[in-house]
Design goal:
Length: about 170
């Protein structure tokens, strides 16, 4: 059995700042965010990268993003709410990855900026990433989940819904 793991870092879709909501945590997706979530989910299935597990912030916009992506992609995996992803930091992401069961080969982590770009940079050893709404970064990790640490992953690709709408995005790995 190979130890090749895939981490898909998904930022929530565009939120609706004009909607009625009681707190930032309850802010919903805008129609553009809903379309982007469906596009990402469908594309992941078309390229045979549907996840085994989804861990998402419990904020409405993040939760809705993964629900729409899963529905559009026909994902049949568990979706677990992670309240700590809402106001977390990159260490929270690493801890979540380190605690995964080895049967999980591909995981989607859904959450917010700036944590998602910071965590992706930390996992891959540095750099700066622009992480627009509903962007999806694919990271590779070779080893057990318990060995995930800063600098121990490689950035394989980053795709945006805008790129997918133009019809171009074929990951190399």
């Amino acid at each position: 059995m190979t130890n090749n793991k895939t981490i898909l870092m998904l930022r929530h879709g565009k939120s609706d700042w004009g909607a009625s909501y009681s707190s930032d945590h309850e802010r919903p997706l805008a129609p553009r965010g809903e379309r982007a979530a469906r596009r990402i989910g469908s594309w992941l299935s078309r390229i045979d990268r549907a996840p085994d597990l989804v861990l998402t912030s419990d904020a409405v916009r993040a939760r809705t993003t993964v629900e729409l992506a899963a529905q559009a992609g026909g994902w049949e995996c568990p979706i677990e709410l992670r309240p700590e992803f809402y106001s977390g930091y990159q260490g929270t992401i690493i801890e979540a990855l380190q605690g995964l069961d080895e049967s999980v080969r591909t995981v989607v982590l859904a959450g917010h900026q700036p944590t998602w770009s910071y965590a992706t940079a930390q996992l891959t050893g540095g750099g700066t990433l622009r992480f627009p709404t509903a962007a999806l970064a694919c990271l590779g990790h070779y080893g057990a989940w318990s060995t995930v640490a800063p600098g121990h992953c490689e950035l394989r690709w980053l795709v945006t819904p805008k790129l997918l709408a133009r019809g171009g995005a074929r990951p190399l790995a």
